[in-house]
Amino acid sequence: MDFSDINVSLPGVVVSYDAAACRATVLPTIPKRLNDGSELAPPKIVNVPVLFPTADVNGAVAQITVPIKPNDGVFLIFCQRSLENWLNGSNSAPDDPRMMDLSDAFAMPGCNQKAPSADGNNLSISYGEGSIKIAPNGEVTIKTPKLTVNAPTSEFTGNVNVTGNVTAKGEVQGKGINLSTHKHSGDSGGMTGAPQ
């Protein structure tokens, strides 16, 4: 095999992306320089698996994904064997003996010519106006225009400080007393009515 025909890795850009299948059409962004000095433009590569951190934990999929759009940068890794059979669920030896071919690529998001700035101190997740930062001492800071938590039961251990209003659409309870039905003795005798 001629070393000029071996592909190891290249930057590329997304042409199109199917999030449901986790597959992309990708264009490598660096052309090949031929011996005569001319350039050979790279072809589009179709059906490229996009790599995200994923694990199957006791039947529950643990995964972190990011949204991908056309022109987003990716890092292409070219496999030592043909991926055709593997992509169709087979672990048998490939029918095609090709090696390090452009058509056998995986794509990793985040390879851009101009990288965004990074947080040098904290573990940071950000998207648009929202961010989550975990400091080395374990403190967590969430910044968001709106926070929605969908959980049948939420439990907090420790103190909760709120700056601003609290609106509850359900029952509010403190030390076993329901706010909606609570009554107490009035200043001039008798009992107060329940809150309305």
DSSP summary, beta strand count: 14
Q: Total number of helical segments?
A: 1
Element order, helices and strands? EEEEEEEEHEEEEEE
Helix content: under 10%
Radius of gyration: 28 Å
User: What is the top-level CATH class of the largest domain?
Assistant: Mainly Beta
Major sheet: 5 strands, antiparallel
CATH H-level superfamily of the largest domain: Gp5 N-terminal domain
Which architecture of the largest domain per CATH? Beta Barrel
Features:
196 residues; mainly beta; 2 domains
In short:
With about 200 residues, the chain is mostly beta strands. The protein has one helix and 14 strands; from the N terminus they run ββββββββαββββββ. The protein is elongated.
Explain how this protein is built.
This protein is mainly β. It folds into 2 domains: 3-109, Gp5 N-terminal domain (OB fold (Dihydrolipoamide Acetyltransferase, E2P)); 117-152, no CATH class. Helices cover 2% and strands 32% of the residues. It has 1 helix and 14 strands, in the order ββββββββαββββββ. It has one helix spanning 84-87; strands spanning 9-18, 23-28, 32-33, 39-40, 45-49, 54-57, 60-63, 73-78, 105-109, 123-127, 130-134, 140-143, 173-174, 177-178. It has a 5-stranded antiparallel sheet, with no helix packed on it. It has a 3-stranded antiparallel sheet with strand order 10-11-12, with no helix packed on it. Strand 11 (130-134) and strand 12 form a beta hairpin. It is elongated. The model has no long low-confidence stretch (mean pLDDT 89).
